[in-house]
Design a protein that fits this description.
The complex is a heterodimer of chains A (about 80) and B (about 220). Chain A is an alpha+beta fold and about 80 residues long. Chain A is built from two helices and four strands, in the order E-E-E-H-E-H. In chain A, strands 1, 2, 3 and 4 form a four-stranded antiparallel beta sheet that branches. Chain A is flat, with a radius of gyration of 14 Å. Helix content of chain B is about 15%, strand content about 45%. The termini of chain B are far apart. Chain B has one domain: 4-Layer Sandwich (Double-stranded beta-helix). The chains are: A alpha+beta (about 80), B mainly beta (about 220).
Chain lengths: ~80, ~220
């Protein structure tokens, strides 16, 4: 199987649990469970710019991209 | 010789660099807002409102969150928003570093990060914003660029296109000027340059944002 991404692709081994920014998650082993949660407290999740994150639970691999499209878009948009 | 107090790895350099930092227990790392990409679940985020209002007034983009490990060590992965490289420097407490407006990525907690007004002439004409980010104190500093980063040792001054500046060490003086008078500014397509004087280090990026913007603009949907 081939898959592509934005930036480089990194493989990470999850043992137990790990937090991943939703915009960086490319693929994951099917036995892993994903939960969406806030990145911090109620206020700081909004003001921090981190927003929602994915909590990955279980044992298995995730593949992450080293850039996320939203970040790129908000960066380049400032110049137009 | 390079010292470091934080363990880190850089992947994906120089075009889409990403850092993974290992933090000991009860250690804080400062991270540019919205750049956290992955972390262990024993890391907590705190948002700082420092400089919040002036940020909206000036358009400067220095907005930092703090991440702290609890109950053991932890790893945090940090990704800049722009395509490009990441450079690590250990600040020794003697020499500060100035970064262009969007250059700060992360630092250890003892590094003092503040924006410094460049002056109207320098700021407006440089096209890179009115502020530079000054990083001082002792500790690890990570900064990022658009394109790859090249480190230059400057002994007797140097001239750099303002769009290629990532950062430079304190002690270098600079003025913003044109290469061949104002006529050449309009006719040659060469932009403004910073004329540095003195000795120190300058970090330059191999790409400039503006040409990317000009290139991409015709492909954007028409408003209307």
């Amino acid at each position: 199987m081939l898959f592509g991404a934005f930036g480089g692709i990194m493989e990470r081994q999850v043992k137990g649990e790990m937090i991943v920014d939703t915009g960086h998650l490319v693929a994951y082993d099917p036995q892993l469970n994903l939960k969406i949660q806030m990145s911090g407290g109620f206020i700081s999740s909004i003001t921090s710019g981190e927003g929602l994150v994915t909590r990955v639970e279980g044992d298995g691999r995730v593949w992450l991209q080293t850039r996320n499209l939203q970040g790129f878009a908000s960066w380049i948009n400032r110049f137009f | 010789m390079e010292h470091t107090s934080l363990q880190y790895t850089i992947e994906g350099a120089p075009d889409y660099a990403f850092i993974d930092v290992k933090l000991p227990q009860d250690t804080i790392i400062k991270v540019e807002a919205s750049s956290m990409a992955t972390m262990d679940t024993n890391i907590e985020m705190k948002t700082k409102f420092k400089g919040g209002l002036s940020r909206f007034l000036t358009g400067e983009s220095i907005f930092i969150n703090e991440f702290k490990t609890k109950n053991g060590s932890g790893r945090i992965g940090i990704a800049p928003s722009m395509p490009g490289d990441i450079k690590h420097v250990y600040l020794d407490g003697n020499q500060a570093i100035f970064l262009q407006n969007s250059g700060f990525l992360a630092s250890s907690t003892d590094v003092v990060v503040e924006s410094k007004f460049q002056g109207l002439m320098k700021g407006f004409f440089s096209g890179e914003g009115l502020f530079l980010i000054k990083c001082s104190g002792r500790g690890d500093l990570f900064f990022n660029s658009y394109g790859a980063i090249i480190e230059l040792d400057v002994n007797d001054g140097y001239v750099v296109d303002t769009g290629n500046i990532v950062g430079f060490t304190e002690g270098l003086e600079y003025e913003i000027t044109t290469i061949g008078g104002y006529r050449s500014l309009f006719l040659s397509g060469e932009g403004l340059v910073a004329k540095f004087r003195g000795s120190g280090k300058i970090w330059i990026q191999t790409k400039k944002v503006r040409p990317l913007v000009y290139w991409a603009n015709p492909f954007r949907p028409q408003k209307g």
